[in-house]
Amino acid sequence: MMRLLWKLVLFLLLSLTGIILFTALPVLIFDYSILMNNTRLIDTGQMTNNSFLVNSIVFQPLAYWDQIKTTVIQLIDITNTTFYNSGINKPLLPILMEVYPQSITFLIGGLFLSLFFGISFTLLYMIFPIFVRNFIKKCILAIETLPDVFVILLVQLAVIWVYKNTGLLMFNIVNVYKTKAYFLPTLAISILPTLYVIKYLILTMEEESTKIYVEFAKGKGLKNIYILLAYLLKNTAAQLFGQLKNIFWILLSNLLMLEIIFNIYGITRFVADYGVENPHLAAICLIAIFLPFFVLFAAGSLLIKRLDPR
Amino acid sequence: MKYIKQPYFLCGFLILLAILIGSFIFSAIKEPSTPSQILYDDSGNIIDKAPFKPNDKYPLGSDQDGNNYLHVLVEGAKYTLGLVILVTLGRMLLSVIGAFILLAVPDFFKKVLSHLCNIFYFAPLSIFAYLLIAPVLIVFSWSYSDLTQFTVTMIVLICLTLPILSLQIANEISILAKEEYIQNAHLLGGGMVHIFFRHILPCLSPKLLLLTVQQAGQTLSIIAHLAFLKIFIGGFHEITYTATGPSNSEITYMRTFSDSHEWGGLIVQNWPAYYAAPVLVIAPVCCFVICIIAINLMVSGIERADQNSYKKIKRTKTLIVPEAKTPSFVPLKDRGVNAS
């Protein structure tokens, strides 16, 4: 138990360090102090012609180190953190609190939706006869290779198409003013993770079902469904949990596309808009995305350790 | 080359080759034409204004200048795929070198690096790329020359997955290095370079091929993502328009155009027109999808070919081994249970 806790703490610390080190990288290769000064002058209207400004790639380890320090200080003192936006410094926390919960709702909702759909579909799949299974497997492997951009565009177009033809608006398609779209976005980002979960579960379950204990259970006369629920699902759950990182990653890259295509102003777009001018903002947002994953991951590993001390 | 015989691999490979060669041939035989922004029918009536809707002459419609969109896409294919090939080859080459460096440094460093690389799972890769590319291409684009912009973009795209890739290859090499024949080669006096080229590389090359193709697919999807984040990879130029607005006031607006008609650039360029003319965005996205599917076909072709050869080895082995009696059907006496 102690070893696991130690491992989790190490994981947390190293990930935070990694994020801070990465987000400070632009300062290492670009001359930020001059660039930001010029941006400020342009934004406040003190400089109108910017065509004479020339800069080149530099290498500044000292500025990099300073940026790391700034990021850490801003991170600790998060209530007073400000970020630069068109000439003025704005407080970060109110805006972050506006964009963050929405994205996290999509992420966590998408995660649970994909796990739920994935597991229930796999259970259905295992009941089907073998020739239907092979067909389904091929279909899933084929769809799974589609890129996220395409899938999300397709969902949006499908809803628009249904609306055009039947006049039935199933869900809000884009965020316009104050009506927020919730269900469709969550569904849209959970499609590819669901397929991933199904693919992974099918492969592990089929491998698991060739093992001797399953044969023995069949020989005892236990019903297929009972074996499926009581043995196979339980024994593949831990392996599926190991894939949490991958599932989360697929969800995130879907989230980015979703926020752009569905015009949702969420955290990834917030990072893209202001993260370049404010490296510390990028670090804070990435940590904000990382934390819920870490909580889930830590809780899951502790739970598994508790149930199965091996 | 057992892979060329694999139908999946061949299929994907041919699709990509056809797109690439078709693009080159097209721009060689293309006649320069002046596009018109207004479309007339046979009797001279105006029927459409650019961007045109898809029709017989314009299978995918046209862009805002009245260029045939299909031609634009075909033209852009060679830049997109060329970029992908350049980035992928750069990645593979550098990551093999990186793998050697990793093998030379102490294990502790490798462990720390692999933990730090975990951060790439906590945000989309394209966001990481964006944070490093956007300073030169969007936010401070006024202070950098075109050449700097291009080199920085390329270097970032190449170096982004370098740590992960190097770690992967280093692991493969260290697994291979434990094989008996390689240790024997050491004992027989083989040098490091000799052993790498003679013994490790032949075993590593199928793995490297698989990684290369996978990296190509990943690069494509990163380019597509970056396009949605409004990054022109293949260069861009801005044109300022003046139009007469309501009550004769002059409105000036700026639009950015892709220099090379590279697909990602086309997506960015036409994104403002997405709701008016969805084809302009969906067509390049579909081009990306076709290429990604072709690459995935190649990946599964490689995997299948490797599996088949593995099965063949297994089968020949099992033929040699005489069939042993399974323990459950051996009489108890023969098993010697009672003998004791």
TrEMBL record, chain A:
GO terms under cellular component: plasma membrane
Q: Which residues cross the membrane?
A: 104-128, 140-162, 182-203, 247-268, 280-304
Name the major location.
membrane
Q: Which PANTHER family match?
A: ABC-TYPE DIPEPTIDE_OLIGOPEPTIDE TRANSPORT SYSTEM, PERMEASE COMPONENT (PTHR30465:SF44), INNER MEMBRANE ABC TRANSPORTER (PTHR30465)
From the Swiss-Prot or TrEMBL record, give the protein name.
Answer: ABC transmembrane type-1 domain-containing protein
**GO BP field:** transmembrane transport
Locations listed in the record: Cell membrane
Task: Tell me where in this chain the ABC transmembrane type-1 domain is found.
Answer: 116-310
- Keywords on record: Cell membrane, Membrane, Transmembrane, Transmembrane helix, Transport
TrEMBL record, chain B:
CDD domains according to UniProt: TM_PBP2 (cd06261)
From the Swiss-Prot or TrEMBL record, give the protein name: ABC transmembrane type-1 domain-containing protein
Q: Which InterPro entries match?
A: MetI-like, MetI-like_sf
Q: Which Gene3D superfamilies match?
A: MetI-like
Q: Which UniProt keywords apply?
A: Membrane, Transmembrane, Transmembrane helix, Transport
Transmembrane regions: 7-29, 79-105, 117-144, 150-169, 273-299
Ranges of residues in domain ABC transmembrane type-1: 77-292
